[in-house]
Amino acid sequence: MKHVHRALVTAATALAVIAVPAAVSAAPQETDRAGLQEQLDHVVATGAVGALAEVRDEHGVWRGTSGVAELGTSRPVPVGGKFRVGSITKTFVATVVLQLVDEGRLRLDDTVAKWLPGVVPNGQHITVRNLLSHTSGLYDYRLTLQMPPAPKFLVNRWRTWTAPELVQRAVANAPSFEPPGSAYKYSNTGYILLGQIIEQVTGRPYGEEIKARIIQPLHLRDISLPGTSPRIGEPHPHGYVPIEQADGTHLVDYTEMNPSVMGASGEIISTTKDLNHFIAALLNGRLLPGHLLDEMKTPGVESKKYGLGLAWQDTSCGVRVYGNDGDALAYQSWSFATEDGRRQATVALTPDFQVDTDDVVDALLDKGFCG
To answer: Nearest 5°: CA angle at 350, between 345 and 356?
Structure first.
């Protein structure tokens, strides 16, 4: 269900020599259903240090973990462990934007120039809808940053980035395409701008709006927006990135880092339980009226299964599921639910970067929804 190619799988060959412990299954309290634990173990055996999942449906709740919480130990991944959700943050941001649309304080056809004059070239032709649907053509600022396995990646580990800095890095490059709205190109820059627009409209940082409008009303006690704080909070599995060193490429513990580099495009920390609750509440109409939820489910371009901060996929049993996925480098996550929000599945893992795990995670999610 990944709509973003994993940027770090190019390090797989170099990491083939890294020893990762075999999968260690943490037996869940609930009875295993239809091989979910077996499939989760397969995810870890394929390409992860550790993984955790929660599936909710008419039969109840299944939770499972596999692998280890930290390399060099036998400590199991905590069932209620916290992790960085990456781009699932975008669904929270999009929800707040659409709530402001519902209140008449913002329009989907408002231009970037209206709210952030002079910030973006051609801003008078790029709309809020374009930013939400990745059809703005704005260059992705992430492509301007050092990435693993380059050793220089670690230089900025503790650096605090501002939204204007990240936007400036992006707009120093030519657009990916023109005119806006004519194509799809994933761009984290659009969501950094949406965070700024939320602040312009409300007078408060986007993080405060997410807390007031989503986290607090839904009682999502384990979701947080860390801002510049490097810590995740307990309990949590450790996450790693591959880094080239003198004697080869090794996994370096990257659990703690300054998340301002992700900002409104990916800073949220959560648990599987709270992500399931959020996606279910969104899809069953607790956060948005029906016509705006329909907007969220409408693709920006016909060839992509991505609307306004929301992605979707059709399972093997013909059930369409909606949600999003996220890549926070040391953590990867997937959270989807059926259209009525009654069946949900969230998976998070700490990759070892030997292979791309998308296919095996897809198989786990498919089993969760189809049995």
So the answer is: 85
pTM, whole model, 2 decimals?
0.93
Question: In 309-353, which ranges are E strands?
Answer: 311-314, 320-327, 332-338, 344-351
Domain range summary for the chain, segments of one domain joined by +: 9-314+341-370
Concerning whether 136 is annotated as a catalytic residue, the answer is: no
Return the structure tokens found at 243: 């880094």
Question: What 3-state class would DSSP assign to 311?
Answer: strand
The residue annotated as part of the active site, out of 25, 66, 74, 87, is 87
- Is pLDDT above 50 for 4? no
- Domain 9-314+341-370 architecture: 3-Layer(aba) Sandwich (3.40)
Angle between helices 89-102 and 272-283 (to 10 degrees): 30
Helices (H) and strands (E) in the chain, counts: 11, 10
Res 213 pLDDT > 50 = yes
| Cα–chain center distance at 221 | 18
**What is the DSSP annotation of 139-195?**
PPGGGGS--TTSGGGGGGTTPPPPHHHHHHHHHTS--SSSSTTSS----HHHHHHHH
